[in-house]
């Protein structure tokens, strides 16, 4: 069932803790040489899945295959994968060199070979000058690189990363994203990256699995996940969206004819499984433009606005009482309508998508 | 305290606030030690007590044998050095026994649920509600030839004659081990409780089996707790006199008993007792210095 370019196959994995089920039959294929992200809110099972791949958790049912080899029952120290831990878990009593060499020596590398590899890996993460330091004498960003170097040194088949950026401050986090991505390209192995930060996921990943409540909601490229979410959870969790209740009249060839609030007919793409009846329309706030009140798809009353720097967020209420937000780019020419004025909203192509649930 | 004025106020008060601690240390620690140091250089009075006359006789008696009348050429006196050596050896063994039992115990407690940990700790400290003398005497009654342990084993038919535990090195070991075990458990517990178990996961992730992880990661990281526990057991074991007196025989004479005898009744020799104490103190100081250096190394990381 595994084609040769699948690095890790997660096959109907179920994980129960007593009466609590953390993973409800998760299946995923992670390809060779891809940056794969498990994205979801805390408690969604993403970390449990990562720990199951590393071997820290046994799965209750199902299998995990690494390059076709069943990992079930193998303890962590026999699995050819390495982990970058959330708080790095660097050995405090060892120098950077000793930390990075640890896995190599345990794996049976000879000392000269291990020393050469440590030098190369430290060069790769730009820490050559810090080889003799101990973790306690380094900044958070440097420690994070040591953790990366330590996990990459033994040439794992797959690198697992458990929210490795969450302990860094914002500026550093943004810089490290690009470096991580470059590192993945350079090493040519699959990275499985766990995060709750959707921006992180969108900027770095080749593909993303959005998880919620122990289930995979959607797997796809960042663009697919953002522009073609399959359900309300994904639409709401990735970026910002307006969810409107609409009446679905007919669906054909993936296009749905719906009635917007205010009874304006509208045609938009639909997630595959939607049936006629009541539906939910996801409208991205940055794909809405303003127009005179009788020329748009929706008619709305302005209730206020929030200044966000690059954008201005406009708060509006529709005729049926639903609230929406609209993002206006903060240009010199941007006119912000007064509170209380009635305006028209035009949904641009690709702004709206009909969702199943 | 950030303001210049208030910090100056605290600076002035600092000395006065420190006074009680200095008084306690001075009266109960420095003064007795100073007294001992002075006494060890005085001449002995035959019914106990000292004559205020400078003399090195006490130290001389400890290290050198000058014959019955003190007129022969000095040779090394091995009796007391032997007692010291045996005491160090006994205390070392007791420390090792405490470590072998104490480490797993501390590990067990530290890895329990936080709610039940305090109960386990409480159980460890319960024997301390009873005086050390009474505990040691109880141990004597337990293991003597006509005591419950032997009678129980005899009744079961496991043994044909009493084990003869009392008045042996083993009995002294047992007494020391029992007396000081919690001093080993508590510091190791404190260290293990702070131990970050993701380090063990990281080691396992980096191809290290259980024992390798224990040796290369866990033990080095909790080492300060282990060293503290060893010192807290070794130092009092070295000077202990209850366990060797009550559980051991003449062959298991230890420093503590030797010193105690010099101050007891009218047969004593105060300067000699003081000199032996000073030598013991020197050994303990050496151990503590090693510990302090170890701690400093730990701090710099």
From TrEMBL, chain A:
GO terms for cellular component: ATP-binding cassette (ABC) transporter complex. InterPro entries: AAA+_ATPase (IPR003593), ABC_SmlMolc_Importer (IPR050093), ABC_transporter-like_ATP-bd (IPR003439), ABC_transporter-like_CS (IPR017871), Mo/tungstate-bd_C_term_dom (IPR008995), NA-bd_OB-fold (IPR012340), P-loop_NTPase (IPR027417), PotA-like (IPR005893). The keyword ATP-binding applies. Its EC number is 7.6.2.11. The keyword Amino-acid biosynthesis does not apply. Keywords: ATP-binding, Cell membrane, Membrane, Nucleotide-binding, Translocase, Transport. Gene3D superfamilies: 2.40.50.100, Nucleic acid-binding proteins, P-loop containing nucleotide triphosphate hydrolases. The complex is composed of two ATP-binding proteins (PotA), two transmembrane proteins (PotB and PotC) and a solute-binding protein (PotD). This is Spermidine/putrescine import ATP-binding protein PotA. It comes from Roseibium aggregatum. The gene is potA.
